[in-house]
User: What shape does this take?
Amino acid sequence: MMEKERYSILYSSPTGNTKMLAEAIRDALSEEDCDYFGPCKEVDSDMLYIGFWTDKGNADAATLKLLETLKNKKIFLFGTAGFGVSEEYFQRILNNVKISIDASNTIVGEYMCQGKMPQSVRDRYVKMKAQPDHMPNIDMLIENFDQALTHPDKNDLNNLKNKIKA
Assistant: This one.
């Protein structure tokens, strides 16, 4: 019988959105093969599920630092972004993240969805809107914030689990 692959689930999640995705992955996989579940750190597993939050169109600093150290690993990338505007947008972020990954690694899958943002972000937008010369897209930003409030939702989590099991 072939030995099942050991894996670790690593994530960076100040708001808890990416942690929700990490927990969905843990639910989808066999627990006894899990070496580590938690914040980004060095681990021995060959298969890594690595979760990030989006910071200026790329993964957060802690995740990028981890990714840059990896060699000869299998990586499944997952992340959340406050903006959920389009698949193209998510793909651009993922492509930026991949720049930090050494060519000796294999990316076996990827998944992104929208994630809710702290209320302070909306408050800042509303303040900006009160300025006479506010950004033309401020209403779109506020609308996006409100749409993001329900994410990651059940649908997002089920889509991720299906990708993991595929």
Summary: The longest helix spans residues 17-28. The longest strand covers residues 47-55. The helical segments are 17-28, 61-69, 87-98, 119-130, 138-148, 154-165.
